Amino acid sequence: MTDPLSRRVRAMRRSDVRDLLRHAGLPDMISLAGGLPAAELFDVEGLRAATLAALEDSPGSALQYGMTEGQPALREAIAVLLGERGIAAGAEDLVVTAGSQQGLDLVARALLDDGDAVVVERPSYLAALQAFGLASPRWCTIGVDAYGGRVEDLDAACAGVRPKLVYVVPDFANPTGACMSIERRRALVRWAVRREVTVMEDDPYGALRTRGEPLPSLAALAAEVPGASRWIAQASTLSKTVAPGLRTGWLLLPPWLREAVVLIKQAADLHTSSFAQEVARHYLASGRLPARLAIVRAEYASRRDALAEALQAGFGERLALQVPDGGMFLWGRFTDGTDPRALLPHALERGTMFVPGDAFYVDAADPGTLRLNFSAASPDRLREGARRLLEAHRALHRLAEAA
Ligand SMILES: Cc1ncc(COP(=O)(O)O)c(C=O)c1O
Questions:
Q1: How far apart are CA 296 and CA 240, in angstroms?
Q2: How far apart are the first and last CA of the chain?
Q3: H-helix or E-strand containing 264?
Q4: Cα-to-centroid distance, 300 and ligand 1 (Å)
């Protein structure tokens, strides 16, 4: 029988992270695998009030069909939020999306023909690789070091091809937690103008900085470089700051790209949930977000430190850890030859889990790497997770010695 599914779908990779999440609900599982915000820190009271306000003050907007670009009042509120982050944007520059994930998909669909070249960081956010992968692109990659994606390697990475899209996560990247240096950010914006290539900045984590000074986003830096606003796009979201269940994100796009994205979004879903948008608008208008974010940042800092310290105490030099200044992830590399794929079943058996790093590469994976999430469990549970991981590591190596 011929396969009834499209070639596109047949070529798709399953997401290891989503597959692993099946185990997350097991009793007593301490998951270091997902990318979930801390559920107990959701501002339930504030969101309840915003929901009531949406129904009482603006039932027409909350329950009716809306504009494909998004509710104007929400876009105004997002423009203010962006202004506070140093980005001069107006409501008319924005498209509200169902999370930033939809933004990545829409931009990919607007830009990519099958086989077009796309530049991503090595490693990169898995679901972005899935979204871009639908176009079976030619992948070009730049490595990531402690100062983020190696922008200086861009020309070599796409020698002989003109990429349609460069995708980067400059602040606290998923999975590495790396933060791109200001020099590289500036160089990337200048490169985009020189090479006339769209650079898509994905910024879900910038607001989750827990130490150090914030760096300007590419979207903010675009104002400094003549012509750059034509080539710099940004996706962001309320998922990590308010709640992912709202599925409310946005794209900041140059006009030529925004028009195309709006057309595609019309075909995809007409518009993002009016109800969610109205709740988000009322929540932002309530002024509660800054105080809530301060709580979230402080808690994430202590969770990061609890996990990092427990892993460092347990593994010592056998695990090289990158400890970020924000975001949700630690990135580790075993220096003792441990294969994270072989370690994972032992970890699951002992009630913890992580994502093997090779899931985040489209080429030449670094085989000893792993991603560990610290946002979703309390410091005590994270310490216990680290202890279980160490036990799993011992069990794996006992087996290897016995063989
Ligand atoms: C780098 C990155 N981009 C986008 C997303 C998607 O977020 P959203 O919930 O806004 O779709 C995530 C979620 O984990 C992410 O890590």
A1: 10
A2: 44
A3: helix 255-269
A4: 17
If phi over 0 gives left and psi between -120 and 50 gives alpha, with beta otherwise, what is residue 70?
left
Contacting residues for 128 by C-beta, under 8 A, at least 6 apart:
104, 120, 167, 202
Report d(CA 132, CA 134) in Å as an integer: 5
Hey, where are the domains in the chain? Answer: 7-43+291-402, 46-285
For the stretch 343-383, pLDDT in tens is: 999 999 999 999 999 999 999 899 899 999 999 999 999 99
Whether 360 is in the pocket of ligand 1, judged by its Cβ within 6 Å, is no
For residue 102, which atom of ligand 1 is closest to its CA? 11
Kindly state if the Cβ of 99 falls inside 6 Å of ligand 1. Answer: yes
Minimum-distance ligand 1 atom for the alpha carbon of 237: 10
- What does the pLDDT look like over 248-298, one tens digit per residue? 999 999 999 999 999 999 999 999 999 999 999 999 999 999 999 999 999
Q: Given this model, what pLDDT does residue 402 score?
A: 81
101 lines ligand 1 (CB under 6 A): yes
What spacing in Å lies between the alpha carbon of 101 and ligand 1's midpoint? 6
Q: Which atom of ligand 1 lies closest to the CA of 247? A: 9
CATH 3.40.640.10 for the 46-285 domain, yes or no: yes
Span 21-27, average pLDDT: 82
Q: Which CATH class is domain 7-43+291-402?
A: alpha beta
